[in-house]
Structure formats: structure tokens, C-alpha cells
Amino acid sequence: MDDGDWSTEKSFLCTWNLDRRGLNTKHPDIVLDVSSSVMCLAFHPSQPSLFAGGTYSGEVLVWDTSQTDDPLISRTGFSDESHTEPVCQVGWIKNSVRSNQFHILSASSDGKILIWQLDGNDRLKLHNGFALVAHQIPRNIKLNKARGDTAFGITALSFSRFDPNVFIVGVEGGYLLKCSTTVGTLATVSSTVSAVPLKAPAEFTFCPHCGPAYTVHCSPFHRNLFLSAGTDGFVHLYSMLQAQPLISFHVSAKYIFSVRWSPTRPLVFAVATGEGTVLIFDLRHGAFTPPISIEQSSDNKEFYCMEFNPRQTHLLAAGSADGSVKIWQLNDELTEQGSQELNHLKQLANKVTY
Length: 354
Description:
It contains 2 helices and 25 strands. By secondary structure, the chain is mainly β.
């Protein structure tokens, strides 16, 4: 069956204000038309009206909803410097020179991680860039055959909360890579034309999933811990100091699309599955204690994305394949940190694998 060309499939961005009196869940406050399917979104860290998005066509867009006439304020357009495949993730990262300003990061299945400057023009300006090339991936573990300048398509990315230069990348082959923005080695990408030289950021390779790693998330409470999950139905907990996972959880018979640490409980994380379930794990009760299932959709529609609210931390939201957004209010047990919880997390991080 031909589903058409996703790169030209129109989509809509909808926003709701949960604090608005008379909130109507059926009628969003703002609806924005987008000419290509939107794959990912990220709000500005301090300006709630500003957010960035990445599209299936490879473009990065920025909207400001305080501008009612035309909220679209900037975009990358299509050029030799922009992405050539779908953008899987966007985010805001601090300007290393001016800490009160932010750049926009985008990652794509074309193997490139690009950092864009928002300077008031209608076109985003490329500021920095990286590329994952097969022969430049660290060989600290055995890798499947991938030769020459073949790009590793990026499927997920997460920055460390403790070191702004360190980030973890998940790729289509299931590998997870520790990367750095401070590298000096140039990426050997023969087919890319760019005024900004692309660098090779990978420094360490972790043992892979059996299929693409669709989601990674660095712990907000420990500098070395991160979670990953993907098409094999497993969630892995890694230390950045070891290639093997510390713990592996078989969570789903289908894909896992999102895993997120709690912003308030060091030992709690949530998992969104292809079975239409959101699971909450609490490692305080043991690594293999059955998780709490807080939603099972009646028609088993996949949950594709999920986030904790960073300010109203008792709220957890997930987006379903049917186009709906579910929001739950978590109880105090899942949001209030225990007295020894950080110590338990440190003990877990110090575990040695073989």
C-alpha cells in the first residue's frame, strides 16, 4: 500500500495551556499548519512561546507563538548544509560564549548533528556540526561490518546534565556512542559540502541493542548513568565508563519508543511501549520488581513520545499513535525523593560488569 510522500504530508502543531481556565481538551489554544510531517519538538528552556521542530523533509523550524500574525520566525531551508533525511530530534543548548543565549541542535538519520544559530533572521545559520562515519566509530567493542564513509543514521540523542560537552547518541544499527562537542578530528564525509567543517564526535562505543535504539536519556542525578531502548523491546541501563549495560530489562514484545528518567526521583524512570502501555520502574524496590502500569489503551495504540513536566513534576504526558495526548498526575510516592535514594543510585553506578 502506498502511504504517499511523508516529506510533503501536511501536519499540524497544537498547543494547550493546562493552567488556562475553561481548558477544552478538544480545542487547542493554537493550531499551526506545517507543510511537512513534524517528527520532533522542543520548547525553549526559558521562553515558553518559543519552540523548535524537525520535519520528515529534513528541515528545522522555529516558531514564536507570541507573534500572532506569523509565528514561524526562522527555518533552515534546504541547502548543502542542511539535513537530507528526517530529523529525529531537536533541542536547545547553551551558547558556550554567552550563557544566556541558546543554539538549536538537530540530529538526523543522515548521520549529521548540526548546531544552528538563531540571530533574528528568517534563516537559521549553521554554527557547528558533527557527522557519524563508519570507519571513525571507536572499535573498543566488535562492530558489524560498515566500511568507508558510510553514515550511521541517528535515531536518538541525549546530553549529559553534568557536562554540557558530553552527549549519548543512538543509531540505526543499535549502537550507542559517547560523543563530545570538543573533538578536533574532522569527519571524512566526502559527499557533504559545508562552510562549517563537520567533526567526528564519537569517543566510546557501548554494546548494542538488537535493532535501532530509538531513545536514550542521561540521568539528571548521576553523571555516568543513562538509559536506552529500541526495537528489541529491551531497556538498558549503562554507565558511561563501561561498554556492557549494568542492567537489562525485557519490557515489551514490541518496540519501545521513549524512556525518561524522573526529574525528582533518582531511581524512577518511565517507559512508553509499542503495546500502548506506559510503565514506571522504581529501582528502590529492586531492579526486577514489576513496574507500575499507568495506562493500557483499549486499542493498543503505540505511545510514540513521552515527557515529564520539568516544572510541574507530578505531570507525565505521552503522545499516542491515534493523535491523542494523555496526561497523568503522579502520586507523592513517585515524585518525592527518599532519604537514601541518591546513595542507592551511586551504588548501582559503581557496579562492575564483565
